[in-house]
Every structure is written in C-alpha cells, then in structure tokens.
C-alpha cells in the first residue's frame, strides 16, 4: 500500500527514507509514525496503512538510518530483540528529533500551507513523540508507553500543542515510581492528557507479536483516533 519517499535533513546535507502511506482522495492531515527500537518494520507499516485508510497521509521516517538503514526487526526473536536494544544504545535522540522535524516539514509541504501534522510514537517513539512536542512545530502528539518521560519533565514548559500519553501500569520498562513522577509532573499541564491502562504491559498496542493486548490496543487506538480528529 505504501512507498518509500526521501526526506531531506534540516541542514540539507543528506536524505533518508520514510515509508509513506497515502489515503484515497485529499488527506485530512498528516501523521508522523515514530518507530520502536525495531525500525520501520511490518508493525509500523501497518500503523501507517491503517492511518491512511482513515484519511491521513502517514509518514514513518527511518530514524536508524545513520546506524543501519532500512533495519527491520522482530521483537519476538531473541537475537533481534537484543539487536534492537543495541541500536537504541547507539541512537542519537537529538538527531532523531531533528529528523522528525524534517519529516514534519516534508509532510506539511505535501499538504499545503494550511495542512496540519501530528506525531504518534511507540516505545522509543513514544519518548520521541514527547520530545517532539517540546522541540518541534507539530500540531498534536501521541505517545505510547512513556519510556523515560519522567526524565524529560524539565522540557514540558515548551509544550504548546495537545499531547496524549498512553501508559500501561504494569510496564516492566517504566517503574511505578517513574509513572508517579510523570503524573505529578504533567497532570497540571493543560496541554497534556494521560490515560493509564491497569495491568497492561509494555507493547500492548503493537501490531505484531505476543506483547499485544487486543482490548487495550483497541481502547488506546480509539482514543488516539478521537484525539487526532479533534486536533488535526
């Protein structure tokens, strides 16, 4: 359904690929789909295709392009899971945010001057979606799982557009203390909404693999759809 499209870096010195899924007819808006640590794999492409079916122009930038372009990993294969962690350790998150900003710029150019662009991210991408809310000019941001957001609370003063966070309470990568800090730090921010998912673990909204919880994914994704329909 989709295609690869080159995105030029902000400094114009290089380009990287994004998987792009286009809707039938004029897009209602664009959404940048931010990958997990497993690259732009089948699950991320499915997310894009689903958004396109709902009328959005969906971009999934290859954020690991500086390390290993076009990497696709399966989190249910132990060696590939470990490689994902290795790539995460090598990944420059600040450069990744600049690449997301470049993807926003590319998407907005494709839509026209009045087009709006949102971001949605998962795992590493959820963290990057929050960072993008603090550092880019996107119009709405959704993050799944809340990895490391408790360490980014000092940036929240820069948030000027709506943010939605989906936080599973049994996430083995986000401790109860980290979740408490997120709530204490963000519950008073008028731009941020946090939904907790009792008893669910990390990756509950994945499109592939044994981490998925169908009921939890359906609820979170319906809330995301409503959020984007309202703000984009």
What secondary-structure arrangement, pairings included, does this model have?
Layout: E1 3-8, E2 15-21, E3 29-34, H1 42-53, E4 56-61, H2 78-90, H3 93-111, E5 117-122, H4 124-135, E6 140-144, E7 163-168, H5 176-186, E8 192-197, H6 214-231
Model description:
By secondary structure, the chain is of the alpha/beta class. It has helices spanning 42-53, 78-90, 93-111, 124-135, 176-186, 214-231; strands at residues 3-8, 15-21, 29-34, 56-61, 117-122, 140-144, 163-168, 192-197. It has an eight-stranded mixed β-sheet, sandwiched between helices. Helix 3 packs across helix 4 (124-135).
Shape: globular
Largest sheet: 8 strands, mixed
| Number of separate helices | 6
pLDDT below 50 for ≥5 consecutive residues: which ranges?
none
SSE order? EEEHEHHEHEEHEH
Head-to-tail CA distance between termini: 23 Å
Q: What is the C-alpha radius of gyration, as a whole number of Å?
A: 16 Å
Side-by-side strand order of the widest sheet: 1-2-4-3-5-6-7-8
Number of separate strands: 8
**Proportion of helical residues:** 25-40%
Report the portion of residues in β strands. 15-25%
Mean pLDDT over the full residue set:
96
Helix/strand-derived class?
alpha/beta
What are the salient characteristics of this protein?
single chain, 232 residues, alpha/beta, 8-stranded mixed β-sheet, 6 helices, 8 strands, 37% helix
Sum this structure up briefly:
This protein has 232 residues and is of the alpha/beta class. It contains 6 helices and 8 strands.
